[in-house]
């Protein structure tokens, strides 16, 4: 509820799960983050006073804030779901925010008249399986006295918790229906379970499972055929293979069986022929081989490679890269004979050696000092393959001293060979940036207010933090007085954690020994190398961190499994960087790189990227910095995580009587595995024992633990120089965030000529190089209110102690009324929301407090549309009002002659009081209320509190304080200000549409045309709707008459704002209905009819006011529809050269047969068919988002050239008060320059070339769909008469 996610990625459509499933919010939120964001349930640690900061699944799935058009929601949408230290959006790091929708332990069951029977039967199956699991284990389990079944149909879900086994433990009985007691039911259940076991044994597992089993033997049985021969693959150590889908009833973890899955598995299955299975299999093979490479297990790697090569299935997906990995292991060992043998096999196969193959061979010969004859033979092969020796050093990536070894080998036969000179830097060819990259106009890069020595010290601090992987900080939550009970609880916890650490370590080592034991049947043998990548202590540390972070409500098993696997991957990548020698080279180059930034060094006319590339070229030897690594497939992460979770559940125990000595002293598990039912979904949960929860609550610990990648950087970020290198020193960061299994974006970026990405990389570096500091007086006031029961009006969430108390239940549970249950449900829901908001605020304030005396930086990356985001997910300038109020630029600038005026105008903008007034009127109003402004600054909590009644109260207070300091200084113009002043676009999406279509009336409505007063498009639409209403009322339309006096700017604003981003009439109706509900006087019985009527009129008004806009939107939508129907995804290139592809594909489910339970993993990737509806609906908003990001990047680069400090929150631009006028000029110039390009025409030509071009030699007639697509793409909408240059004189374009 990492990362998510920053506004990351478009949401896919969730499966319907009946009326009792918790609703998922779908309201479109526009571009800006709302003031109140609902964060995820829990997070990285625990707050003071026994408050839990762990993830709380609660009684209902968290609401997913997503936009109905398939585009991302607000920046906090991901934080809402994953407030953890993981980065969001990358394929391997953290938990993608879609996990709650994507992963479940069961698919939906048959829906028919038997649904009630199915639910009861399934529940009994789960209980039976759980009882069997517990009886088969020697581990004592939690005892739960009763399981309620009677209310299953009415409750949101029922949990099935099996009692702990005693000597003779009966299956749990159910009250009410008496189902569990019925002999008939028991016999029927036994018969069904037996038949299901037989069916399961006849199944062919999915290809993704096969890929994950890797070396496991799969029994394939057809209904009418004898068993096929088993396929054998090598184990990491030599072991016998295990049956993949073993259903042994004696297994300590029998699988829950689901009705629908059983029905699906009845049918004989064939191996699916789509490429998604091949992609997963290829990724798995490469990941396995890279593990062997890291562990230097050459024999195992070669055996595995050759068995894959001889396999009919795996041989098809094997590529030259797989051979290169194994040859690299032999090369590091200097074993030329073994490498030569593999090279011969590669040549004899249908594959052919590539440039990297020859580089590895020459490295090996250089390492073992091979004779010239052998070296010459390989150099001749290289030439005959069409390669040149120089290309080895120009195109290949090297680890450690590989480059030196290759050079030694070549000089053995060519003593005078010289390395090719570094290629001359290529200049970005974009017409929008020709002047920017011209050496004639280049200026010195601005300096930071740090010396070389200071920057070196900051770099070391950042490096130490990243090497530790996690950061533990003090919570800002006021600690309760340290009672004897708390002291005792902390001592107990310390002792227990030490014992747990040893127990987990022992369990891990036993598990590894079991896997490594020859002739041992285990389907987990494939995981053995993945459990050897890190020291055992690191695996234990990861598992202990997850245990410490778990909230009393528990967490989805799938979420925890994915998180554990991802944490292992992240640490493995860091170890690879350390092993390859990359860290030493980064340190060496960074020490020289800071010469560009330090105030006591010579000015240099380079961009950060250019200077870093120059230093890398000068360094010559050593490892390559942009080494590529294979992302582990999702199913592998899940399986590794499930195994670690199983170890954790089995190993960690607590004495049952630790808090109550009267109880029996036997140990009970700290964690237990239960199932919850969300309507027709069965979801596995891991919950902590109440004894453990109480102990943690009593201890009232006051620390929070975050991943180092979740913290702001303590030194300037490493500049982005390629799609695979930049941002943090060691933590792996993707240039482009993308959804779970989507790797196509990364491939697209890597295939794109690097020179085409220069502008995008430079813009990201510019945003990341902005230094920040904390506004300490504002932070202290916020913390004081936070610790004093909060204040909902000021967006400071109150603690759970302020949550509404549920009503007292009647003594007889059978007499609970429907209204009573609903009231209890609402209380629990409110408590969960309050907890989420409280934890979100706690993380932000605690991180801010941790860096209160430091200068820090936010490295940036982008989503697939090019929109930029800070990498640290919790605390950054994209946050809410509270977060923005405590951030200041670290660099100070004098206010200058107009700076104080801009501060005052900015304050009035923050209040929201004078939106329709001219700037001069806003300034005059600020001067009129100067007394209130100064009173707010001097006595924020005891004075008149004027600042509290504003739209953005905390930013307004911070601005009041800045104005007070400046106005009281001897010379306000000379006052050094660190305060950011904002300039906000006026309905920016519609501005881009109006400019694209040269729409004169639309341009005037969104302030592209100069005007004495700001034009308000929302009021204009409301006025137009009111005119339509009057006409309809006169004609006697009842709903139009009812709406008299209720149509306002507020009612239509959200819908108008989100129309440009593809909101549908359905979504728009919900938005308007919500606004009407807020009006007490509006008759409730007309809500549906009125909202339906209004959304229609709003769309008609926009169509009339923005005719060109609707034409363009329709053209984009229809084009995307036809492209998707042809089986292709929609792609385009931004005016800055960034390639974009929409990542919406049909998803498929893969069943993972894990230890505790089976998991249904839903994935979508580029090897599957595109989702036509999402491709169509999302194209217009995504295209506009790519344009607004292009405009922002152009503005950032040209502000840099003029020496400005610049950051952005999408279409809200920030700079010092001194430079607001300059930024406004640059912003307008770049908007005019961008839209002076033939954007739609270029898009049409690109798509015609990509989707409709056919070879000239082709004699086949053009298909009908292709003709239709060509006609559609060629019919670019006509443009109007608007003169774009008028934007230059429009005061309220950005204001």
UniProtKB/TrEMBL annotation:
InterPro entries on file: DNA-dir_Rpol_C_phage-type (IPR046950), DNA-dir_Rpol_phage-type (IPR002092), DNA/RNA_pol_sf (IPR043502), RNA_POL_N_sf (IPR037159), RPOL_N (IPR029262), TPR-like_helical_dom_sf (IPR011990)
Catalytic activity as recorded in UniProt: RNA(n) + a ribonucleoside 5'-triphosphate = RNA(n+1) + diphosphate
Record's compositionally biased regions (Gly residues): 40-53
PROSITE patterns, A to Z: RNA_POL_PHAGE_1 (PS00900), RNA_POL_PHAGE_2 (PS00489)
GO cellular component: mitochondrial DNA-directed RNA polymerase complex
Keyword annotations: DNA-directed RNA polymerase, Mitochondrion, Nucleotidyltransferase, Transcription, Transferase, Transit peptide
Biased composition (Basic and acidic residues): 255-275
Record's keyword annotation contains Mitochondrion: yes
An example Gene Ontology biological process: mitochondrial transcription
Oligomeric form and interacting partners: Homodimer. Component of the mitochondrial transcription initiation complex, composed at least of TFB2M, TFAM and POLRMT. In this complex TFAM recruits POLRMT to the promoter whereas TFB2M induces structural changes in POLRMT to enable promoter opening and trapping of the DNA non-template strand. Upon metabolic stress, forms a complex composed of FOXO3, SIRT3 and mitochondrial RNA polymerase POLRMT; the complex is recruited to mtDNA in a SIRT3-dependent manner. Also forms a complex composed of FOXO3, SIRT3, TFAM and POLRMT.
Protein name: DNA-directed RNA polymerase
Taxonomic source organism: Taeniopygia guttata (Zebra finch)
Gene: POLRMT
């Amino acid at each position: 509820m990492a990362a998510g996610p920053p506004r990351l990625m478009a949401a896919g459509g969730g499966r319907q799960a009946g009326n009792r499933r918790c609703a998922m919010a779908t309201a479109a939120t526009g571009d800006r983050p709302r003031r109140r964001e609902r964060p995820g349930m829990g997070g990285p640690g625990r707050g003071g006073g026994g408050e839990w900061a762990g993830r709380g699944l609660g009684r209902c799935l968290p609401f997913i804030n997503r936009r109905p058009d398939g585009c991302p929601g607000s920046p906090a949408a991901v934080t809402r779901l994953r407030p953890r230290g993981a980065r969001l959006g990358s394929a391997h790091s953290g938990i993608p925010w879609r996990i709650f929708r994507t992963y479940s332990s069961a698919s939906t069951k048959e829906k028919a008249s038997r649904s009630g029977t199915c639910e009861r039967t399934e529940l009994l199956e789960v209980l039976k399986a759980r009882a069997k699991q517990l009886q088969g284990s020697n581990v004592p389990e939690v005892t739960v006295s009763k399981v309620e079944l009677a209310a299953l149909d009415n409750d949101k879900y029922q949990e099935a918790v099996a009692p702990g086994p005693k000597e003779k433990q009966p299956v749990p009985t159910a009250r009410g229906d008496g189902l569990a007691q019925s002999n008939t039911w028991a016999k029927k259940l036994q018969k069904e379970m037996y038949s299901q076991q037989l069916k399961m044994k006849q199944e062919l597992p999915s290809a993704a499972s096969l890929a994950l089993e890797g070396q496991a033997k799969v029994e394939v049985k057809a209904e009418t055929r004898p068993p096929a021969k088993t396929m054998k693959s090598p184990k990491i150590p030599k072991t016998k293979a295990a049956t993949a889908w073993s259903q042994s009833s004696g297994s300590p973890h029998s699988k829950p069986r689901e009705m629908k899955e059983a029905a699906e598995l009845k049918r004989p299955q064939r191996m699916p022929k789509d490429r998604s299975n091949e992609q997963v299999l290829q990724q798995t093979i490469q990941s396995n081989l890279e593990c062997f490479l890291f562990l230097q297990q050459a024999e195992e790697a070669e055996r595995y490679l050759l068995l894959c090569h001889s396999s009919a299935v795996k041989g098809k997906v094997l590529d030259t890269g797989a051979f290169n990995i194994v040859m690299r292991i032999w090369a590091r060992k200097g074993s030329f004979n073994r490498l030569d043998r593999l090279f011969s096999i590669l040549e004899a196969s249908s594959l052919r050696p590539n440039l990297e193959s020859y580089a590895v061979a020459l490295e090996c010969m250089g390492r073992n000092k091979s004779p010239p004859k052998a070296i010459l033979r390989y150099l001749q092969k290289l030439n005959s393959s069409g390669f040149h020796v120089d290309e080895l050093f120009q195109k290949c990536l090297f680890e450690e001293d590989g480059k030196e070894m290759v050079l030694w080998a070549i000089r053995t036969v060519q003593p005078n060979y010289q390395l090719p000179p570094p290629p001359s830097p290529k200049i970005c060819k974009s017409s929008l940036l020709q002047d920017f990259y011209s050496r004639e106009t280049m200026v010195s890069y601005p300096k930071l207010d740090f010396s070389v020595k200071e920057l070196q010290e900051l770099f070391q601090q950042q490096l130490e933090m990243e090497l530790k992987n996690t950061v533990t900080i003090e919570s800002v939550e006021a600690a309760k007085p340290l009672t004897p009970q708390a002291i005792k609880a902390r001592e107990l916890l310390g002792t227990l954690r030490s014992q747990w650490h040893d127990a987990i370590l022992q369990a891990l080592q036993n598990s590894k020994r079991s896997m490594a034991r020859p002739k041992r049947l285990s389907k987990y043998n494939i995981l053995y190398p993945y459990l050897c990548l890190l020291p055992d202590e690191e695996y234990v540390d990861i598992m202990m961190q997850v245990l410490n972070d778990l909230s009393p409500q528990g967490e989805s098993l799938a979420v925890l499994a994915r998180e554990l696997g991802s944490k292992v991957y992240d640490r493995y990548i860091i170890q690879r960087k350390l092993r390859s020698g990359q860290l030493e080279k980064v340190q060496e180059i960074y020490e020289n790189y800071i010469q560009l930034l330090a105030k006591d060094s010579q000015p240099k006319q380079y961009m950060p990227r250019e200077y870093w590339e120059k230093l890398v070229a000068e360094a010559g030897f050593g490892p390559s910095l942009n080494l590529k690594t294979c992302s582990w497939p999702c199913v592998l992460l899940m399986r590794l995580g499930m195994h670690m979770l199983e170890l954790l559940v089995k190993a960690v125990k607590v004495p049952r009587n630790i808090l109550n000595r009267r109880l029996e002293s036997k140990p009970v598990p700290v964690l237990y595995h239960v199932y919850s039912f969300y309507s027709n979904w069965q979801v596995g949960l891991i919950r902590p024992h109440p004894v453990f929860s109480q102990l943690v609550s009593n201890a009232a610990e006051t620390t929070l633990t975050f991943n180092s990648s979740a913290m702001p950087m303590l030194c300037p970020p490493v500049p982005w120089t390629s799609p695979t290198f930049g941002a943090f020193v060691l933590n792996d960061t993707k240039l482009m965030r993308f959804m779970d299994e989507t790797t196509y974006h990364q491939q697209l970026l890597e295939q794109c000529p690097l020179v085409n990405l220069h502008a995008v990389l430079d813009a990201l570096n510019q945003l990341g190089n902005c230094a920040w500091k904390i506004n300490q007086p504002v932070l202290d006031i916020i913390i004081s209110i936070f610790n004093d029961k909060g204040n909902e009006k000021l967006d400071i969430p109150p603690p759970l102690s302020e949550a509404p108390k549920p009503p007292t239940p009647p003594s007889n549970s059978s007499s609970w009324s429907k209204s009573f249950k609903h009231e209890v449900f609402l209380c629990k829901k409110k408590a969960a929301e309050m907890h989420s908001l409280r934890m979100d605020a706690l993380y932000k304030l605690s991180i801010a407090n941790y860096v209160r005396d430091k200068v820090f930086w936010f490295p940036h990356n982008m989503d697939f549309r090019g929109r930029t985001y800070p990498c640290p997910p919790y605390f950054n300038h994209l946050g809410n009002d509270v977060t923005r109020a405590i951030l200041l630029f670290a660099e100070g600038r004098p206010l200058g002659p107009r700076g104080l005026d801009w501060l005052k105008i900015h304050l009035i903008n923050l209040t929201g009081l004078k939106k329709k007034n001219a700037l001069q009127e806003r300034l005059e109003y600020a001067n009129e209320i100067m007394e209130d402004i100064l009173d707010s600054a001097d006595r924020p909590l005891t004075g008149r509190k004027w600042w509290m009644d504003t739209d953005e109260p905390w930013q307004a207070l911070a601005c009041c304080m800045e104005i007070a300091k400046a106005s009281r200084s001897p010379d306000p113009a000379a006052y050094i200000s660190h305060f950011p002043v904002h300039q906000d676009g006026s309905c920016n999406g519609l501005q881009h549409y109006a400019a694209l279509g040269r729409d004169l009336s639309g341009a005037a409505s969104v302030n592209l045309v100069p005007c004495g007063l700001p034009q308000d498009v929302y009021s204009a639409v409301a006025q137009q709707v009111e005119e339509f209403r009057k006409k309809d009322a006169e004609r006697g339309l009842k709903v139009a008459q009812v709406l008299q006096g209720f149509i306002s700017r507020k009612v239509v604003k959200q819908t108008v704002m989100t129309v440009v981003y593809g909101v549908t009439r359905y979504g728009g109706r919900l938005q308007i209905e919500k606004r009407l509900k807020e009006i007490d006087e509006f008759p409730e019985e007309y809500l549906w009819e009125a909202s339906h009527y209004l959304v229609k009129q709003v769309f008609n008004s926009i169509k009339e006011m923005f005719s060109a806009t609707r034409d363009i939107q329709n053209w984009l939508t229809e084009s995307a529809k036809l492209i998707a129907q042809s089986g292709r995804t929609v792609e385009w290139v931004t005016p800055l050269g960034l390639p974009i592809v929409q990542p919406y594909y049909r998803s498929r489910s893969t069943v993972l047969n894990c230890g505790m339970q089976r998991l249904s993993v839903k994935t979508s990737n580029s090897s599957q068919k595109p989702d036509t509806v999402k491709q169509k609906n999302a194209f217009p908003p995504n295209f506009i988002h790519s344009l607004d990001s292009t405009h922002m990047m152009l503005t950032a680069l040209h502000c840099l050239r003029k020496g400005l400090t610049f950051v952005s929150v999408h279409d809200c631009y920030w700079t010092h008060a001194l430079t607001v006028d300059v930024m406004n000029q640059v912003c307008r110039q770049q908007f005019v320059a961008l839209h002076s390009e033939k954007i739609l025409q270029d898009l049409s030509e690109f798509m015609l070339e990509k989707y409709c071009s056919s070879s000239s030699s082709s004699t086949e007639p053009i298909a009908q769909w292709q003709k239709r697509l060509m006609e559609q793409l060629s019919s670019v909408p006509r443009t109007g008469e608007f003169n774009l240059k008028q934007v230059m004189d429009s005061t309220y374009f950005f204001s």
